[in-house]
Write a structure and sequence with these properties.
With 92 residues, this protein is mainly α. The protein is built from six helices and no strands. α1 crosses α4 and α1 packs across α6.
Length: 92
């Protein structure tokens, strides 16, 4: 997957997250960013990577995003690998 496609998927994930009244506060609390910072940093590849990292913490979040977006369940993680830090080895 190329970086532009990965960023597009991550932006879709951010939009889905922003529209989720129950999950958005969890994201804000986990990352320590404010809603204004989310808007300001939405174009940063590193921030978009953190959105996908957050969603990957729970299978229900990933499947919910994919189901609502009509995406294959593997696409968010493929996108994550194409963004900064995605090539780091996983030790789990």
């Amino acid at each position: 997957m190329d970086r532009d496609s990965a960023e597009t998927i991550a932006l879709r994930a951010l939009g889905w997250l922003a529209g989720n009244d129950e999950l958005l506060p969890v994201f804000l609390g986990a990352t320590g960013v404010s809603e204004a910072e989310v808007r300001a940093r939405a174009g940063e590849p590193e921030f978009l990577a953190s959105v996908l990292d957050f969603l990957a913490m729970d299978d229900a979040w990933i499947t919910g995003f994919c189901d609502d977006s009509g995406l294959d369940y593997t696409l968010p993680m493929r996108a994550r690998m194409a963004l900064p830090g995605g090539d780091l080895p996983s030790w789990t």
